[in-house]
Amino acid sequence: MSASAEQNRSLNFDDALLEIKNVTLRFGGLTAVSELSMKVPRGSIVGLIGPNGAGKTTVFNVVTGFYKPTDGIVEFDGKKLTGLKPHKVCEAGLARTFQNIRLFYNETVLENVMIGAYVRQKGAWWQNIIPFTFPGAAKEEKDIESASLNLLARLGLDSQADAVSSSLPYGAQRRLEIARALATRPKFLLLDEPAAGMNPQESQELLEFIRRLRDEFDLTILLIEHDMKVVMGVCEYIWVLDRGALIAEGSPEVIKASPKVIEAYLGKEGLVAGASEEAANA
Amino acid sequence: MSLNMFIQNFFNALGLGALYGLIAVGYTMVYGILRLINFAHGDIFMLGAYFVFFATIQFKLPWGVGVVIAIIGATVVGLLVDRIAYRPLRAAPRISALISAIGVSFFLENLAVVVFTGMPRAVIQPDWLVSPIKMSEEVSLIPLALIVPFVSFALIGALLWIVYKTKPGLAMRSISHDIETTRLMGVSVDRIIALTFALGSALAALAGIMWALRYPRVEPFMGIFPGFKAFIAAVFGGIGSIPGAMIGGLTLGFVEIMSIAFFPNMSGYKDAFAFILLIVILLVKPTGLMGERMEEKI
Amino acid sequence: MKIRNSILTFLAVAALGYFLWWASLNLDRYMLRIINLIAINAILGLSLNLIYGMAGMFSLGHAGFMAVGAYVSALLIITSDQKVKMWILEPIAPWLMNLHTSFVVSLILAGLAAAFVGWLISLPVLRLGGDYLGIATLGFSEIIRILIVNLTPITNGSLGLKGIPAHTDLWMSYGCLLVALFFMIRLMKSNFGNVLRAVRDDEIAARTMGIDTFRVRVLAFTLGCFGGGVGGALMGNLITTIDPKMFMITQTYSLLMIVVVGGLGSITGSILGSVLVTTMLEWLRFVENPINFGSIQIPGIPGMRMVIFSVLLIAIIIFRREGIMGTREFSWNWFFRKGGVGR
User: What per-residue confidence (pLDDT) applies to A275?
Assistant: First the structure.
């Protein structure tokens, strides 16, 4: 750890926003995550990579409270996160997106974002039903609407605010999912394969977009990604997971050079390439 | 409670439980494959009872012939229900099929009112089934009390053989694990589903016949409560599991009969026991006694 | 635009008021009963739609909550003289003897009682999903019915309650419907309405967005039960006789039909569904009555009404699953944008 921290002077691992301490998760006899420890420095953009089935999304599910780890704890801003229900995790300031986008497809783009903002809404549900009596609650709801429109504008979705979210093109759906996550006013954003389904041009733009998000919204971002260009291009620090266990961590340069990673991850592609060459020869 | 009373109650519970179990396997097989509560199943059971009633009492056919007619009739109805009301909804949200099932159940009950009239009709029990046989000094039993559980267990045995030892049975189990993959393997899924409905309906008809002999009458709404209770038995035993359905049915039978035997003033609440049992099992162990856990993918 | 819409809404309510005034003077008792039933069924349909269509909980327990409401209201407005005469099997519970309130108070208490029972039930039951929820709510509704049959000192058991004052008139039932509509529309237009639909459409995403989905569900369920209780009370005061048999699963099925025909999740749909299903159920009575063609008499067929009813339910779910409205709503803007599709 100290050696890699040396190479990333800009990252302060003593000021970790999210800390995963020795987390193990077992389903029956299957160990999905084993003794994972990670420290995510405040304000950084970091990545979690690994071959398919390595347990990356499972780590997200543990952090966001969908799975309770068999062992170990997760801390957020010095407070224990483990054992909290997913909605409490969101309240604490963590938001996420999903590998296969999960929008509210019957709702409009604006409504999707407003649903995200609900977690910070103070007025009770009944105050907005009774007319004239609760001007504060009515004003709050108006403010949520304009703030949501504003957020959509910043993400370039304002022109489609009244469109049903299922009618958006794929890329816009991904951005909407991020907008919805931002509406919960998170400090920490988990992105699950944000570049999936994008062409090289789009993923190049994504790099800029993710950096902009971090700077404009004052976020710390942890992302899972398969697109190595995106990972190496935007992440300041990377953890590599294989079969639930951490096999390497460090700056992009360190990861690129790590023989273990090449074997577990990149090496596989080499093997596949070799196999197809053999097939071609035969 | 005297020994005789206890023995009577014991066989009463065993018979009732076995019948619940016999109906429950129909629910459990269909739910295991289609994730559908086949609300109409209790009404197939009712139709089975009616068919045998008409064949033997109205048309004076021998009992054996009546039983065959009832099985064939109920099976045909079961197949038609699947074909007309469920198959068009395979790709629809599950709740749609469930509403369709409610509609079918409602339809069959009222069709029975139209065709058979709403009047309950008495079933004449053959003498040899109900003339008591002396077991010992103080205990005597009617043959029916022994025949019902015996036949039910034999039928479950036969069903288990079909499901675990034959090729269509293998296909059934495979569909309940993964319907799409099974389809890709070249299994005619719709036919196997039809077979499932046919087997379930035939067993329900047999249960209906035995029910009509035990409580000697038939009426159009006789299937509703046994149906609900059998479904509860299936959930209790772990939905999808055939032995589980039988264990669930027996448990329910014993709970109902024994609680009234020991607390006779609770008899007004008899029908509530099953629902309370359901809610308790769903809260304590939602997968039932022998069910498998299903995880939702995030 | 907004002013125009307000004026139009006002005019529509005024027109309804005029129609009710005209109807109360000119129509016979049978017709009035049907028009009353349309409003009551609309209230019940709306409340079931809130639970099922808006919040996505497949509940089959509505008849039970109606029963709670109907009994609470009836017990509060029947006079003590009537009570003495009615309880023949067992004497009435003494504390109940002199309990008496006005009709409107009894309506509210009926709603609250049903909501309370619904809330109690929801705590264990709403942890279940999908069709298990359906069967468990159905079970609770049966348990409520069994309790009513057996708690004779309070409910007069299977004999039911007779001679309930006929407080439900057109003004009462349509007044209640308008109130229900008003709050329902405001609820579904508020951000909480968005949240309800979010919980229905994707529970996992909703939880990730910080929504306590269980709490939201319990709330929607309880509100729906409140409507069920008020609807049951209105029904009891319209028919003036209630007994446990009235609140069997069949009652829930016809409400389900209203919601499905109209469109799950559509307020407009529940109103249209109620008009259609209520009139159809009445109209279908003719198949159960003998018909005379001059000298030839065709005997009525008992049960035929429900056979046709159930065939229609199956046909709708197979051929037009989304019902009349889908999840769409009527709006004046939609009305004037001819042929356009409003949301």
Answer: 43
Same domain, residue pair A176 and A195: no
The residues with which B134 forms a beta bridge, in sequence order, are B140
By the 8 A CB rule, do C80 and C186 touch?
A: no
Q: What is the mean pLDDT of chain C?
A: 91
Q: How many inter-chain contacts (A to C, CB under 8 Å) are there?
A: 92
Last residue of a domain, one of A131, A158, A181: A181
Disruptive mutation site among B294, B297, B298 for chain A (greatest number of A CBs within 10 Å): B298
Cβ within 8 Å of B, A 29-88? 57, 61, 66
Q: Distance between CA atoms of B179 and B172, rounded to whole angstroms? A: 9
Are residues A104 and C187, on separate chains, in Cβ contact within 8 Å? no
Complex-level ipTM: 0.87
What pLDDT band is residue A281 in, cutting at 50, 70 and 90? Answer: very low
> Is the CB of A85 less than 8 angstroms away from the CB of C190?
no
C324 touches chain A (CB under 8 A): no
Cα(A40)–Cα(A18) distance, integer angstroms? 5
Q: What CATH number corresponds to the domain at position A253?
A: 3.40.50.300
Residue B296 pLDDT exceeds 60: no
Q: What is the pLDDT averaged over residues A84-109?
A: 95
Residues A161-175: pLDDT tens digits?
Answer: 999 999 999 889 999
Q: Which of residues 84-123 of B touch C (CB under 8 A)?
A: 84-85, 88-89, 92, 94-96, 98-100, 102-104, 106-107, 109-114, 117-118
| Across C243-263, average pLDDT | 92
Instruction: State pTM to two decimals.
Output: 0.90
Q: Please report residues of C whose CB lies closer than 8 A to that of A111.
A: 194
In a domain, A11, yes or no: yes
Domain stop point among A145, A165, A181:
A181
Counting the structural domains of chain A, the total is 2
| Average per-residue pLDDT for chain A | 88
Quick check: is A144 in a domain? yes
Q: Are residues A88 and A191 in the same domain?
A: yes
The answer to whether residues C33 and C222 touch, using CB atoms and an 8 Å cutoff, is no
Longest alpha-carbon distance in chain A: 81
Asked if C211 lies within 8 A of A128 by C-beta distance, the reply is no
Token pair 């008009």 is at which residue? C275
Q: What is the pLDDT of residue A227?
A: 85
> How close are the terminal C-alpha atoms of chain C, in Å?
17
Local confidence band at A267 (pLDDT 50, 70, 90 cut-offs): low
Closest partner CB to C140 (pick from B111, B235, B275):
B275
List the structure tokens of A84. Answer: 């909290």
- A152 pLDDT higher than 90: yes
Q: Which residue from A95, A98, A128 is facing C192, i.e. has the nearest CB?
A: A128
Most confident of B32-36, B291-295, C186-190: C186-190
| Structural domain range at position A132 | 104-181
Q: How confident is the model at residue B276 (pLDDT cuts 50, 70, 90)?
A: confident
Task: Verify that A210 and A240 share a domain, yes or no.
Answer: yes
Structure tokens at C71: 């009994």
Task: List, for residues B69-92, the tens digit of each pLDDT value.
Answer: 999 999 999 999 999 999 999 988
Cα separation of B286 and B288, whole Å? Answer: 5
| C302 to B95: CB separation less than 8 angstroms, yes or no | no
Residue B210: count of CB within 10 angstroms of its CB: 24
Is residue A78 located within the same domain as residue A132?
no
Backbone angles phi, psi at B248, to 5 degrees: -60, -45
Q: Are residues A145 and A172 in the same domain?
A: yes
Q: Does residue A203 sit in the same domain as residue A174?
A: no
Residue A99 lies in a domain: no
Q: Which residues of B touch C120 (CB under 8 A)?
A: none
Domains of chain C, residue spans:
11-248
- Pair C274, C42: CB distance under 8 Å: yes
**Partner chains of C (3+ C-beta pairs under 8 Å):** A, B
